[in-house]
């Protein structure tokens, strides 16, 4: 299996007053007690991408490198500015399956082919503190890049890099940068060697000039693009089994579907409704994993809060079996879903919509009037559902009504989120109020699901001759929690539905 490490680094290039192609003296950087002797490595890397460079467009690099202390396959995924996760696999002739799987949503059916060969002569120094602990590695790279195909163009340059050691405060990089700037170096314009190689070997795709969103169509499409990018990013996180990734991917699908429904005056629903149906299916498939995860965590927390004298029978074992059932079956199913042709076709359809959006007449109007109207329409829908829920007597029918109100609150919140760039602070305040309603109703729905799970667990425990006392106690506490949510709803709703939150939109 591939290994992963977090890479935090900064790249520099020589300014007009730099001293040359060697590392400046860094022994005077605050916190540095010693700088080791320089070590030179010869590195040879071939970078892979699709013919239309989909990975490069997403800031992702995939390379096969020989030489140095970490030769092998490296997949680098952006995390934040200056930070990437580097996933490594041993050397092999072809792209390792584990790495190819992580970028499948980006690559889809396109082949991964050699794009650029980059050879570097790297001189490395290690920066140590007074105890001899590694703070960072600083390197000077003399680079030659050769485009593979496309006429075989080449480029040469020298760059400098400082990579933070594990456990070092990232603020240390600021101290190093201060020294490097004094020596005439400046931060590199290119985020990676590959990006610079593509620029300097010519005929790189030029980015279209961007303009500030003005129309309703501009804002809605910007939001759709943002959520599509989030969907792709969380796809990789789910494949890596990152914490909370399934939930976040599900949220991205819901935001997309909500935007299609809310802004039907901007994007033609004859085109977006089929996409919405596919997004709903995807969310439901992901949700099977998420719902059990939520219940398992809730039950674990509740059980931990009970005195030991009230825990009778093998309750903890029962809960572990319940939680393990999620991990055992659903991850395999989710990965199969993400590798399926239907999911890849959905991603293709989202790309096609962004490339040629089905805009309606309202899309050309100024954003505030169109988006505010859509947000208020979703609010009225929520108000009707809350009123219905509050007027329904206790029992399963009220649970259902509250769940429907929760979904409407979520849609109103997402509508306002999408409108925030156009409507500003009023939309932000409105979003916050809708989130309050959604959170309360979400806790109520989690209680409904937890009680359903507790009853099923109690049935199994009873059939096995085990005590069900503790499970019944947890059930009763969940009933109390749901009743508290129902008592708080009128007050939370009164605050959220104040006229001034809508009048400012």
From TrEMBL:
It holds the Pfam family CHAD. Residues 5-204 form the CYTH domain. Residues 213-498 form the CHAD domain. Residues 183-216 are annotated as: Disordered. InterPro entries: CHAD_dom, CHAD_dom_sf, CYTH-like_dom_sf, CYTH_domain. SUPFAM superfamilies: CYTH-like phosphatases. CDD domains: CYTH-like_Pase. This is CHAD domain-containing protein. It comes from Streptomyces nondiastaticus.
